[in-house]
Amino acid sequence: MRELVSALVKKALPSRLLSPIVASRSRRHQAYVLRKLGIAPVAERFVAEHGLQVRYGPFAGIEYTAAAAKNRLILPKLLGTYECELHEIIAYVQQAGYDTIVDVGCGEGYYTTGLALTTKARIIAYDAEKGELAFARTMAEMNGVAAQIDFRRWCSPEELMKVARESERMFVLSDCEGYEIELFTPEAIRKLKNADILIELHGEVKSELMRRLEETHALQVIPFDRENRGRRAELDTMSDEDRARAVDECRFPQEWLWAKRLT
Is the link from the previous residue into 253 a cis peptide, with omega within 30 of 0? Predict the structure, then answer.
């Protein structure tokens, strides 16, 4: 019965109203899972010893706030192992000379602040949950890049097309929990033919998104590799179990779609 009610609510509510509810529930569920799996205590001990600065990876040097790090999958980000499958693409983004970077579903601002620190692009960051957007803004301020970032609540296809019209060379990063099939409409994709797009896939959307993008973009599906998360010296004193918890990203499974504009 609960699943039926949930399905009816999703069908009845427009995405603009539903997305903040889904995001808030997801955050609460993540906090529960991190405690249940023993990941949260490992993270708390690490932070107490090493602090809240990102130590490795493409965004080494970012400072987190304690509030943004709490009850979150924080250790892989501090260790620079987070979404390591994407590091090659992030390195490309950092060197490509985009004038605009759009981060849809920016969360607490890991990619938003990281890309502001490592590129000269104008960055527009969206998140439907106002609490996450506040964390992202605070992180940007702490790291001295708030002036480079425009924080906004909602990214519709029309909004995305408007930004595309104002940009010469654009990169779009999307992690919006299933909304991607509504965001990247055929019309929006036509306007994004000169943009590079990286989409975290949720649900059964891969084949349809690939069909929409195949005429304008070169496509690559990137799978999450649970077994190869990297190794850091800071974890050497931990037990094998806690080392595994430290780099666990709780993905079962995950894929990303990298859509690079056709030249």
Answer: yes
